Amino acid sequence: ERGEQTLLFLNRRGYAPLTLCRACGHRLQCPNCSAWLVQHRRARRLLCHHCGHAGPIPAACPSCGAEEKLAAVGPGVERLAEEAARRWPEARLATLSSDLHQGAALKRLLEAIAEGAYDIIIGTQLIAKGHHFPNLTLAGVVDADLALETTDPRAAERTWQLLAQVAGRAGRVDKPGLALIQTHGPEHPLMAALAASDRDAFIAFERAARQAAGMPPFGRLAALIVSARDDEAAADAARRLALARPPADRVMVLGPVAAPIHRLRGRWRYRLLAQSPRAIDLSAFVRAWLSRAALPGSVRLEVDIDPYSFM
Ligand SMILES: [Zn+2]
Ligand SMILES: [Zn+2]
């Protein structure tokens, strides 16, 4: 009514993260990764967001052959746009996602938004930073828990940065703004700090959590990922690598366990973690470790010191 703009933020590209057969329960999976294929309706494609595999959306279930039984499960930004169009048919809608707009087309769309050509802007993290939208006074974060549902050591930090950015898009100096955040855990210290716009409270919580867990910057961490095209070869190499660890009192080695994405780009993956206090030279420990381990040529090893992601 005031002619101002609303942002709906959902950090998930595509229409739905899962396509499921309602007849037999089959889930459409990437042939190269242990990951579901994401349904992109505008591009009429099923995409793997990990390896880039792309294929058409089938008419029949590839497992049982049932027709018109494939259901899109869960929200993506395209689905959110569809729902918003149904609910507010008179509103002018813009959907922004890195797979829909790039380069000059993206720049034009952002300019049109800034000039007030749209009422509701629906977007992924593409919309979170940069660009000043003077007329945007309401921001809604849909499914804010998404980024917290990982095992990444810095998930909370990244979630805070992203959500604080999105919330900060609503309102500027001359117009007050409002941000609404959808979460299953409003009592989570991150969400509580966000609701109070209290960055210091979040930092205090995050420091305490990392200190208690011995995570960087209070302790050191190294992630070793062993992978091979053959599952048994990868598992066996990971077990032998664990046995080859050099003696060191204050270094704890965890694993091997199947990596969160067990199969990626056709390779089966197992993870070991080494954790130590700050005073220990963990890089030297890992170098000594690797010099003692003889891995077969078919096995690949990736080492990540103070890893950003545990994928
Ligand atoms: Zn089926
Ligand atoms: Zn894949």
Q: How would you summarize this macromolecular structure in one to three sentences?
A:
This protein is α/β, with parallel strands linked by helices. The chain contains 7 helices and 14 strands.
Description of the structure:
The protein is an alpha/beta fold and 311 residues long. The chain folds into 3 domains: 144 residues, P-loop containing nucleotide triphosphate hydrolases (Rossmann fold), CATH 3.40.50.300; 57 residues, no CATH class; 87 residues, Ribosomal protein S10 (Alpha-Beta Plaits, 2-Layer Sandwich). Helices cover 26% and strands 26% of the residues. The chain has a 5-stranded parallel beta sheet, sandwiched between helices. Strands 12-13-11-14 form a 4-stranded antiparallel beta sheet, with helices on both faces. A 3-stranded antiparallel beta sheet has the order 3-4-5, with no helix packed on it. Helix 2 links the parallel strand 7 and strand 8. The two termini are 45 Å apart.
